[in-house]
Amino acid sequence: MKNKIVKNIEISKAARNKLLSFLSDLTTDELNHIPTGFNNNLAWQMGHLVVSQQLLCYRLSGNELIIEKELIDLYKNGSKPERYITAEEIEQMKGYLLSTIDQLAIDLAQNKFDNYTPYTISTFPGLTLANIDDAIAFIACHDGLHYGCCLGLKKLVKMQG
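The chain above was modelled as a monomer; its predicted structure follows.
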């Protein structure tokens, strides 16, 4: 693997570890709370990071997803929590935050992403991911973006709770 790809994976893993630590003191109810003016919650944010990485890296390369297909519609871009996310589901997402990044590094070393279908990011008009290197760079940025969202969401959860 190239050094830049390895660094982007390290950045994603660091951001996800920081997110897990940052959210560790919250209850299941707090993770499910949707603050006034928002359309999602902290539990959804975790699931969204997992699903986005799976779609942008695995699906666009024609690989099988590591996660259950049912999770896609629950956490894909444009979705929002339609029901209470259980403690078990939250624990599953917490595990996936790290295990999917670890598996990505393994699969990269095995060249599983050579058949990448270019994809234009809907939320960043004009930005096209041409290959797995682009996807991994975007995932690192996306993880940081959502970590920032979680900082604000947690403050509001604590204020409104």
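The longest strand covers residues 119-120.
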